[in-house]
Write a structure and sequence with these properties.
Blueprint (H helix, E strand, L loop, with lengths): L7 E5 L2 H10 L3 E2 L7 E4 L3 E5 L4 H15 L6 E9 L8 E9 L5 E2 L10 E7 L12 E3 L2 H8 L8 E9 L10 H9 L2 H20 L3 H9 L4 H17 L15 H13 L6
Length: about 270
């Protein structure tokens, strides 16, 4: 486990996707990490995973094992995608992700809105040349989401894609410089996301919920349950913009029952993008 606790984990498949992020946020390479190229500052951890679903899944899992904590954090897949007609360089936030190989579908439900269009993306195993779908295409998004959601709530997972190819300019024409320039043009959106994350998480971290202390005193909690409780209360705080939550401790007889109740309560939260 690494001592640094980033607030935003960014995953890019290609070095040319990562390069402008490293420069914009002044990230430094983590020299102690070998399997993947990892870059850090106090708020961001960027991992270059390599191309394809297996590489992305491995990169996410490895990085989370090293850096994640019980503090709230967010996860972002930032990269390129092809589309039938969208102009090169346009930015889209994906709210539906389909794995073409197994037809699994995922619906990220982000807690923050961003100033860009939304779209649906299909993750494929090899580059697409036909452009016969209205969806976007990439080779990592489904693996990113499927792995990320094991570590992080769906509301805190984002997938941003810059259009790199279309019917007029196929995937075969993509150049690294074009990719880096396309990503660089939209890093103000990532910066906006980060600023919202920092504001929210710092508020949560600076105000240890009185409810947390009350619950710890009332129930016997293991170290693992204590971490789960803090994470769930922080999750609630972020989702509801710091609204309080009333817990009927008389009807919840154990820490396990309390954690189960909190999970169900969070799943029922209505929030608006």
């Amino acid at each position: 486990m690494h001592s640094n606790t980033p607030k935003l984990f960014v995953y890019a498949a290609l070095p040319c996707e990562a390069k402008p992020v490293v420069e914009y946020f002044n990230l430094k390479k983590e020299l102690t990490v070998q399997p993947f190229a990892v870059y850090l500052n106090k708020d961001i951890c960027l991992t270059v995973t390599g191309i394809g679903k297996s590489a992305m899944a491995a990169g996410v899992a490895y990085t989370q094992a090293l850096f994640s904590s019980d503090q709230p954090y967010f996860m972002l897949n930032l990269g390129i995608a092809g589309h039938q007609a969208s102009a090169l360089g346009e930015l889209f936030l994906m709210d539906k992700i389909t794995d073409v190989d197994n037809q699994r579908r995922y619906y990220p439900s982000q807690v923050f809105s961003l100033p860009c269009q939304k779209g649906s993306i299909q993750t494929v195993s090899k580059p697409q040349l036909a452009y016969d779908s209205l969806d976007f295409f990439d080779m990592e998004a489904s693996a990113f989401y499927e792995t990320a959601v094991r570590f992080c709530a769906s509301e805190f997972i984002f997938c941003l894609k810059v259009v790199s190819d279309n019917q007029r300019s196929s995937v075969e024409n993509i150049q690294p410089k074009q990719v880096s320039e396309g990503i660089a043009r939209h890093l103000t959106v990532v910066d906006l996301l980060l600023s919202r994350i920092v504001a929210q998480t710092e508020w949560v971290n600076q105000s240890e919920p009185q409810l947390f202390e009350d619950c710890v005193q009332r129930y016997y909690v293991t170290v693992n349950e204590r971490q789960q409780l803090k994470k769930l209360l922080s999750h609630w705080d972020l989702l509801t913009d710091h609204q309080g939550i009333e817990i009927d401790t008389s009807s919840l007889k154990s820490a396990k029952e309390l954690l189960r109740w909190l999970n169900l309560k969070i799943q029922g939260v209505d929030f608006y993008l």
